[in-house]
Design brief:
Distance between the termini: 167 Å
Order of helices and strands: HEEEEEEEHHHHEH
Radius of gyration: 39 Å
Low-confidence stretches: none
Largest sheet: 3 strands, antiparallel
Number of helices: 6
Shape: rod-shaped
Oligomer: single chain
Number of strands: 8
Structural class: alpha+beta
C-alpha cells in the first residue's frame, strides 16, 4: 500500500491556507456583530427571533452573532394616499382620495413590532383609513361633503387618531385630496349651479331695469321742476 507524505513546503502552504480561511471566518463573524441605525430610525433587538424589549437608538450597535439581530423601524413621518368608496347620508356613492401623514411613536416601537410587525401599513393603516372614511361619509349628505369639507376632514382625523393611537402610530396630518361623485349627482349639481346662475343673472337684469327706470323718473321730475320754476319766473315778470 502506497504511503503519501506532505513535504514541509506543502505543509507550510496548507497551514497558511487554513489560517487565512479561519481569519476570514472570524472577520465575517466580527462584521456580523456590528451594525448601524440610521437617522430617523429605531432598532428592535431580537434574541433567537424573540423580542428582548430593548430599543436601539441611532448609531452603532453590537449583537451576539447567530443569536441576536436588530430589526429597523422607520420613525420618520410617512405618507399614505388611499381611495375609499362609501355612501353619503343621502345614499350617494362617494369616492374619496385621502392623504395621511403618520409616524411611529418611538416609545411604542417595540409594542408595534411585537403585536403587528413591520407590515403595519397594510394590516393597520390602510384598513383604518377605509373605516374612518366610511363612518364619516355616512354622517353627511353629498352636498355637505363639499360645503363642509374642513368639518369632514376633522371628523376623519379624529377617528384615525383614536384608532391608531393604541397601536403605536401617531396621526400627523390629514388632507382630503378629492371627492368624486356619481355622474347623476354631478349632473344634478351642474343643473343646480346653472339655475342659480341664471336666476342671479335675471335678478341683476331686473335690478338694472329698475335702476334705469328710477333714473328716468328722476330725470323727468327734474325736468318738470325746472319747467315749473321757469313758468313761475315768467308769471312773475
Amino acid at each position: 500500500m502506497a504511503t503519501y507524505t506532505i513535504s514541509e513546503d506543502n505543509q507550510g502552504r496548507l497551514k497558511k491556507l487554513v489560517t487565512a480561511i479561519a481569519a476570514f471566518i472570524i472577520f465575517l463573524i466580527l462584521i456580523s456583530a456590528f451594525g448601524t441605525v440610521g437617522a430617523g430610525e429605531r432598532g428592535i433587538k431580537l434574541r433567537f427571533n424573540a423580542v428582548t424589549g430593548k430599543v436601539v437608538g441611532e448609531g452603532l450597535y453590537f449583537v451576539i452573532p447567530f443569536i441576536e439581530r436588530v430589526v429597523i423601524m422607520d420613525i420618520k413621518v410617512q405618507k399614505e394616499e388611499a381611495d375609499a368608496q362609501a355612501a353619503s347620508k343621502d345614499l350617494q356613492t362617494v369616492t374619496s382620495r385621502i392623504a395621511l401623514n403618520y409616524s411611529i411613536d418611538p416609545a411604542h416601537a417595540v409594542n408595534l413590532y411585537q403585536n403587528i410587525g413591520i407590515d403595519y401599513k397594510s394590516r393597520i393603516v390602510d384598513p383604518t383609513i377605509q373605516e374612518a372614511v366610511k363612518a364619516t361619509t355616512a354622517k353627511f349628505t353629498a352636498e355637505e361633503l363639499i360645503t363642509k369639507r374642513e368639518e369632514v376632514r376633522d371628523a376623519i382625523k379624529l377617528i384615525l387618531t383614536d384608532k391608531l393611537s393604541g397601536t403605536g402610530l401617531k396621526v400627523e396630518q390629514l388632507s382630503i385630496i378629492n371627492f368624486d361623485f356619481s355622474q347623476s349627482f354631478n349632473s344634478a349639481i351642474e343643473a343646480k349651479v346653472t339655475a342659480e346662475q341664471n336666476a342671479l343673472a335675471a335678478k341683476n337684469k331686473l335690478d338694472q331695469v329698475k335702476y334705469e327706470a328710477e333714473q328716468a323718473v328722476a330725470a323727468a321730475k327734474g325736468k318738470a321742476t325746472a319747467l315749473q320754476i321757469e313758468a313761475q319766473a315768467i308769471d312773475t315778470n
